[in-house]
Amino acid sequence: MTSAAFSSLAPLASRMRPQSIDEIVGQQHLLKPGSPLRKLAEPIDQASTIGTTSVILWGPPGTGKTSIAKALANSSGRRFIELSAITAGVKDVREAMEKARTDRDGFGQSTILFLDEIHRFTKAQQDALLPGVEGGWVVLVAATTENPSYSVISPLLSRSLLLTLDSLTVDDITTLLERAVSSPRGLNGTFSVEHEQLTQIATLASGDARRALTVLEASALAAEARKSSAILATDIEIAIDKALVRFDKDGDQHYDVISAFIKSVRGSDADAAIHYLARMIEGGEDPRFISRRLIILAAEDIGLADPAALSLAVSAAEAVAKIGMPEGRIPLAEATIYLALAPKSNTAYNAINSAIEDIRVGKIGKVPAGLRSSALSKAADSSGTGQPYVYPHDDPRAVVEQAYLDDALSSARYYQPKALGAEAEIGARHSKLRQIIRAFKGK
Q1: C-alpha dist (Å) from residue 3 to 91, 186, 225, 238
Q2: pLDDT digit string, tens, across residues 15-67
Q3: From CA 24, how far away is CA 360, in angstroms rounded?
Q4: 429 is in which domain, residue-wise?
Q5: Which residues does residue 140 pair with via DSSP β-bridges, in sequence order?
Q6: Nearest CA to 371 among 403, 323, 409, 419?
Q7: pLDDT digits (tens, 9 = 90+) for 244-271
Q8: Is residue 370 located within the same domain as residue 406?
Q9: Nearby residues of 369 by Cβ (< 8 Å), 6 or more positions away
Q10: By the 8 A CB rule, do 290 and 277 touch?
Q11: Are residues 384 and 269 part of one domain?
């Protein structure tokens, strides 16, 4: 028999939408006192001029765009109209605008028009919004997961405030789940669940509150099927149709898995590296942390054997930052495989460490006179105390015999190239250039 927790036909995620602006979890950078959203949430009779400003909410799925729009209407007492760019046409937009104008002029009723996925609207459909926005018939709250600079027409952008939403943190989503377990609108205390299980659900959601609440509801149904009021890890596994990864982000396993990941890439085992990448992703590791490790790996362990590796790692990090998870797993996998299969060289890493070690023990020397600032260099030349600077571009080879280090350091060899990948060619060039530059010393 279905319990009271499931008596409503509406999904848990829908029932748990915030009823007021104060119930919003996350996005605190947009909800500070005096912020545009706070002004829009003020009761109409108290609202200031800024309270009629339209806004465009840009952020990943499940970050609260629809919830914010409905909470604004509830808190302010405005009428709420919702249109989806997937189903609404120009006719629907115009009808909504006319209704809003009639309500305003005839009954003094202000309207919030929430338009979901505005990036799917054509230019003509977006043009139809302009009279209502400009005339103040509606307060437009538009939502998009795409960059509005490319998907929203300029006249509409200029008449609206662009507000960027962040992905919800694990703590944010855990708070929402705890609220859903106890709230009369949610599971109403019918089920018990450990904090650890809620954190696992929040981690699996990858910043999407709607996904987390859906998993919680399915887990509760699995528990009810067992005739139990306690939601267990096995119920969550049934809900998501996969085993939960045991991955303590603050414990030894965290360090063991990331260490194995790094060493697998360094050791050129692409399959092992992908395995550990998958374990980190499924365990809820911060993708930004993984991205940073890949950038370090590219510079430290691949280096000049494949200079393109660093660019690829940086590009993967930027891609993850732009598209988020779970899609971010794809560029992370691409970078991981590329780095694992790339030729390896740590010569740049060794070179800078060796040079820093010399500096720290006092092996510094003077800057050769010809390399000093122009005034000092000319003074040295005129007094005969140093060699003049020779401009390399005056030589057809663009390299000349010249002292770039003090005599005490002229034999230093920090960069020791390996004959691997692209560095084989770089190393050969380094050797030839060094012979020319240091020919005067025979070093």
Answers
A1: 43, 12, 11, 19
A2: 888 888 888 888 888 888 888 888 888 887 644 444 468 899 998 888 888 88
A3: 53
A4: 364-437
A5: 113
A6: 403
A7: 555 445 445 667 888 899 999 999 999 9
A8: yes
A9: 376, 377, 380, 381, 385, 386, 387
A10: yes
A11: no
